[in-house]
Write a structure and sequence with these properties.
alpha/beta; Aspartate Aminotransferase, domain 1; Aspartate Aminotransferase, domain 2; 7-stranded mixed beta sheet; about 40% helix; globular
């Protein structure tokens, strides 16, 4: 069959040990130890269904899209646009044209920063972000603020790693033209109250962008219910390929914004006298797209949907609670980020042991975690730490793996003492 099949067998019960069989990499060893992968906030592992989808594309359908009249081009185009419909349904966008394929959440934010700013922002206008943003949701706004003479305002956070909502309200004014917030912090796990954030911004007529890179793998998203103007995420954090991402934008805004890049497929006609740009979504998709990436992302979304986001959320919160309790057994360990509403990751420091040493020694036990500033240097500065160690969970992790992690941490502390 040439047509790709996105469906996977629906799981009757959430059996983590059966689910793990879908992920080939989880059966390998590292340093002669079974791999324990706790770096899911950086990137998730891929189920065989996604891998097979990509292999099938290259084996049976590979061709460039949109421009060809031959069979393979038409078939590839059909699957690519089917992937767009799957994403539209997944986040409940109103129109397919509101789904733009990009290289990732970072490019999606940069697209909005460059294209929206050049059309709608003027000297003296204000952009509001939070102290806990990833660098990809700080640097683009900083760059355009310098370019256009804008003012960048930052919402502070408290010792639990939560935004101070009252301070957010104080920063808003008629000069606020754009609010850009992370949904879930990649370094603290904090789940921000984005519906309230959006509603408050709308009172001042501001446009709102939500960075959903960390939330899409864990929480149901309904962009119409949220009423955000832009929403971005990356495929590789939701069990899909790297190099593919999504920009959702309200249709009237995307239509009013100029193209981000020039090239093929984003034009209707070109002459040396006049260029006519293509309609949505192609206006923002210049050049050959990451075709297999989009199709692989659609397969990953189908996989997650068949597991059930509610099932995923409940199980991952069990892991979060269990690991938090086990870490509290270690007096030398301090968790950074204790928000009341928190997702399934934990950042921590251990007295007198550098996070990089912790990560290196855990690796020798086959345990993959992330160490460093996690592209959130302002967060590290706020908590007065150079870096943290971060464990982040996915639905294929187990409590037994957490037990091994805790035992390894205790051995590391004993070794240093």
């Amino acid at each position: 069959m040439d047509k790709l099949e996105f469906r996977v067998e629906k799981k009757k019960t959430f059996d983590v040990y059966n689910i793990r069989k879908d992920f080939p990499i989880l059966s390998r060893t590292v340093h002669n130890k079974p791999l324990i992968y706790f770096d899911n906030a950086a990137t998730t592992q891929k189920p065989k269904q996604v891998i097979e989808t990509i292999t099938h594309f290259y084996s049976h359908l590979n061709s460039n899209i949109h421009r060809g009249v031959h069979y393979l081009s038409q078939a590839s185009t059909t699957e690519f646009e089917c992937a767009r419909r799957i994403v539209k349904s997944f986040i409940n966008a109103k129109f397919e044209d509101e789904i733009i394929f990009t290289r990732g959440a970072t490019e999606s934010i940069n697209l909005v920063a460059k294209s929206f700013a050049s059309s709608f922002l003027r000297e003296g206008d204000e952009i509001v972000i939070s102290y806990m943003e990833h660098h990809s949701n700080i640097v683009p706004w900083y760059m355009i603020s310098e370019q256009f003479g804008l003012k960048l305002k930052v919402v502070p956070i408290n010792e639990n790693g939560e935004i101070i909502f009252e301070e957010y309200e104080k920063l808003l004014s008629e000069r606020t033209k754009l609010v850009a917030f992370v949904h879930i912090s990649n370094s603290l796990g904090t789940i921000n109250p984005i519906k309230e954030i959006i509603d408050k911004a709308k009172q001042y007529g501001a446009v709102v962008l939500i960075d959903g890179a960390q939330s899409v793998p864990h929480l149901p998203i309904d962009v119409q219910e949220l009423d955000c103007d832009f929403f971005v995420f990356s495929g590789h954090k939701i069990y899909g390929p790297t190099g593919i991402g999504i920009l959702y934008g309200k249709k009237h805004l995307l239509e009013s914004m100029p193209p981000y890049q020039g090239g093929g497929d984003m034009i209707l006609s070109v002459s040396f006298d006049k260029i006519v740009y293509n309609s949505l979504p192609h206006k923002f998709e210049a050049g050959t797209q990451h075709i297999e990436g989009a199709i692989g992302l659609a397969s990953a979304i189908r996989y997650v949907q068949n597991l059930g986001l509610d099932n995923i959320l409940n199980y991952e919160l069990e892991l979060l609670d269990y690991c938090t309790e086990r870490m509290q057994e270690i007096p030398q360990l301090k968790i950074i980020g204790n928000a009341k509403n928190k997702s399934c990751l934990i950042s921590f420091v251990i007295d007198n042991i550098h996070p990089h040493d912790i990560g290196t020694l855990l690796d020798l036990d086959g345990i993959a975690i992330r160490t460093g500033h996690h592209c959130t240097q302002p967060v590290m500065q706020f908590f007065k730490v150079p870096a943290t160690s971060r464990v982040s969970f996915a639905f294929y992790n187990t409590k037994e793996e957490i037990d091994i992690l805790i035992n390894s941490l205790k051995k590391i502390i004993k070794k240093f003492n």
